[in-house]
């Protein structure tokens, strides 16, 4: 079979969620609705935090950056899928595929690192409340976000470089609705041992290290809260972590579910459907989780809505 380097491909084919033409209008409408809700919901969170001086704190600063990352995460994959459905096409160019991979891992890793930074913020607020204003100064918070961005950029470039070195057979069909690096690695006709090493290091950066930081932070938080004698103070401390914990479980739980299902299931299409949870549904639900459980966010949102109305 004739081999070609990725750069010699003019396009790849994204097989999408289903080949059933009757389902395409439903899939288009559903994903368009979820994407609009994601963008609108996260933009409202950013506007609410930016317009209310009471929300100019480290916790909400990190939340606004998380919302921005969620918008970018969804925008990387969903619009291209909608365009392909509308145009009755499955193609994506080489440049488009590489760009999609780069931005997908950039915003995905940034999401993961910001969740770890937010866990550290809660650790300092609960375990060291008197030193909180000194430790979490605005310049330090900005540095956390900047470092998270550059680490995410490094992670995304590692994935892009790995994919650009792969060799593929002709007519490469990607059993997904976006260009995913592991799917492309599985399609490669060349030796993938080097790419496996790259993906291991990239996965350590974007997955293992943030999860370890979150687990350590909440171990310290729970240990500190359990030493508090007042039940009301315990509840108040736990309530400040509730929304963040729910988002953490949703983000990592769905991501872990994708990789577990791909290891157990032999159907690429089923893996694709499961991956919708963490690529589309999770960014859509995050604004609802933070706004419905947070009185300050709800108040700021109602102010914005009342001004518009």
Write a short abstract of this structure:
The protein is built from ten helices and five strands; from the N terminus they run ββααβαααββααααα. The strands form two sheets. The chain has a three-stranded mixed sheet. It has a two-stranded antiparallel sheet with strand order 1-4. It starts with a strand and ends with a helix.
Tags for this entry?
309 residues, 76% helix, mainly alpha, two-stranded antiparallel ribbon, three-stranded mixed β-sheet
How are the SSEs placed, and which strands pair?
Elements: E1 3-5, E2 11-14, H1 24-51, H2 58-86, E3 91-93, H3 94-127, H4 132-135, H5 138-164, E4 167-169, E5 173-174, H6 181-187, H7 193-226, H8 231-264, H9 268-292, H10 295-308
Parallel strand pairs: 2-5
Antiparallel strand pairs: 1-4, 2-3
What number is the mean pLDDT?
83
Low-confidence stretches: 1-8
Strand content: under 5%
What Rg do the Cα atoms give? 21 Å
Q: Summarize the biggest pleated sheet.
A: 3 strands, mixed
How would you classify the helix and strand content by structural class? Answer: mainly alpha
Identify the overall geometry: globular
Helical coverage, percent range: over 70%
Query: SSE string, helix = H, strand = E?
Result: EEHHEHHHEEHHHHH
Seen as an oligomer or otherwise, the chain set is single chain
Number of H/I helices: 10
Q: Kindly report how far apart the N and C termini lie.
A: 63 Å
Number of strand elements = 5
Strand order of the largest sheet: 3-2-5
């Amino acid at each position: 079979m004739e081999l070609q380097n990725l750069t010699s491909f003019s396009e790849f084919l994204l097989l999408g969620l289903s080949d059933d033409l009757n389902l395409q209008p439903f899939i288009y409408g559903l994903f368009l609705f979820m994407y609009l809700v994601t963008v609108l919901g996260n933009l409202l969170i950013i506007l609410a935090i930016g317009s209310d001086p009471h929300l100019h704190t480290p916790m909400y600063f990190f939340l606004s950056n998380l919302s921005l990352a969620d918008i970018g995460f969804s925008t990387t994959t969903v619009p291209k899928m909608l365009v392909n459905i509308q145009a009755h096409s499955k193609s994506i160019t080489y440049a488009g595929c590489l760009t999609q991979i780069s931005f997908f891992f950039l915003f995905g890793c940034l999401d993961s690192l910001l969740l770890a930074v937010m866990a550290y913020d809660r650790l300092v607020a609960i375990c060291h409340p008197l030193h909180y204003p000194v430790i979490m100064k605005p310049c330090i918070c900005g540095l956390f976000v900047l470092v998270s961005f550059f680490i995410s950029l490094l992670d995304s470039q590692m994935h892009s470089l790995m994919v650009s070195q792969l060799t593929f057979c002709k007519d490469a069909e990607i059993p997904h609705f976006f260009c995913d690096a592991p799917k492309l690695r599985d399609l490669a006709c060349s030796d993938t041992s080097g790419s496996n090493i790259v993906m291991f290091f990239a996965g350590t950066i974007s997955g293992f290290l943030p999860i370890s930081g979150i687990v350590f932070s909440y171990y310290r938080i729970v240990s500190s809260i359990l030493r508090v004698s007042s039940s009301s103070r315990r509840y108040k401390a736990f309530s400040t972590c509730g929304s963040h914990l729910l988002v953490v479980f949703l983000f990592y739980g769905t991501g872990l579910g994708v990789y577990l299902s791909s290891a157990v299931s032999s159907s690429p299409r089923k893996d694709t459907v499961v991956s919708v949870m963490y690529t589309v549904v999770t960014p859509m639900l995050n604004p609802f989780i933070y706004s419905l459980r947070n009185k300050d966010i709800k108040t700021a949102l109602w102010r914005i809505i009342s001004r518009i109305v």
